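Show me any protein, keeping tokens residue-aligned.
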Amino acid sequence: MTRASRIDRLRARETMLATLSHEIRTPLNGVLGMAGLLADTRLDAAQSAYLNTLRDCGEHLLGLVNDALDYAKLEAGRVELEPTPTDVEALLQGVSELLSPRAHAAGVEIAWATVGAVPTVLADDGRLRQILFNLAGNAVKLTKTGGVTLSAQAYPVDGGTARLRFVVTDTGPGLSGADQACIFEEFVQTRAGQAAGGAGLGLAIVQRLARAFEGEVGVDSRPGEGAAFWFEANFQIEPAVTAPSQTSLSGKVIAVVSPSAIVRGAAILQVEASGGEAVGCRSLTDIPATADAAMVDGQYFRARARLKPPKRLPSLILLAPEERRRIASARSGGFAGYLIKPLRRASVAARLSAVLGEEAIRTFAVEGAAQPPFDAPHPIEDERATAPSARGARVLLAEDNPVNALLARALLVHAGCIVDRAMSGEEALAAALSSSQSGAPYDLILMDLRMPDLDGLSAARALRKAGVQAPIVALTANAFDEDRRACFEAGMNDFLTKPLDHRALAVVLERWAAPRSVARAVAAA
């Protein structure tokens, strides 16, 4: 077979995989989406149980489809990496927060931390994220008690290169020596993995991606003692990126109170990375007399009626995003502030400095990092602590599939948006141009990629060429990394994968639509 014919064959296979992905995921979008809408209606106990089983089965099927298609895609040709400046802390934070709802729903914790300073490196952010997501997602699925921690550490190789070691540690069932020897092979599953469901392809995908990075992947484990999956490779340090200023906790002793070793361990590393000294405590009675402040996990109060901080010690309470209803009780109980799990290192340093009365607080350049205490004049809240809202935002929904359109419209209306629908690329182009020319542009355009007349990528290019500035977010069943890049190259701002998840949509609305709708309301006032 000639090189040209092999390339043609690989391209044909890629086209087939993209089509297959779209055709399978489109009806799944309807099944899971409608199940989600049904869950918001009034149901009795039996109906809720049936619905939960339906959603679990649908999500299981979606996971199988994703793994099978992704593995086939990798097998179709050599993995081509596209290095870009990558913030390792932001990467760990993003993966942890994405998996946080799944972990908390299973009753386990998820946390992240860096061990020492980790530089910005040149790496394929999407593929690196996929490695971490597969490892951490697998750990969350198999862990029944305790939790999962993602960490990264850098080792200098020479002046311009560092070797990064990523570790995903869990408190799951662990692995025998025989399992460790074959766990990264295709379709191999442990007994626990078989019980949890899956095709046995997630770790095989990690293995292939590790080779593409010219790195190594492995696992350290003992039966019954959890596992530590690791990936390491050499990366070029990005010298053009200047490290942001950091809030310093130098000279401060912080007590971290939590029944979870996962939460304690990550919080201790984050305090130490900000220059402070941290002491892990299982209860309030273990807090040393030398402590300057305390961070108290909301889990500690589950068996207690009231949320009460330790006496005479400035304290923050640690809450999961779904526990925001407890913020008011924590405030009235005497806590000086709160932090949302999984913790962000910048937020830990900034809010601890605030409750300790530090002046001129300097924070990391991380969105939403600054978190003054409850009694600050104008607190900047962690966006995970409030229900995302884009009330009054004008959204153009370009979607030709009636089931997908019904689901997306319902989610948007529930978020308070005003929705117009276009059923083709040409309709979307005409509607967006008309609204822009009339002086009332859309706050957000949700653009399906596969539509009649004009596809979403072509419509986005045409809109940008015409000077339309409204944020454009892709809606697609094609979940491959190159699809994301194609969207950004066409001028789109973000990417939502079908089946449409209400949490992911809420983040997109908060990021792109809410600021524009608020600015319009202020201008009109």
User: Anything to note?
Assistant: The radius of gyration is 24 Å. The longest helix spans residues 3-39. The longest strand covers residues 147-158.
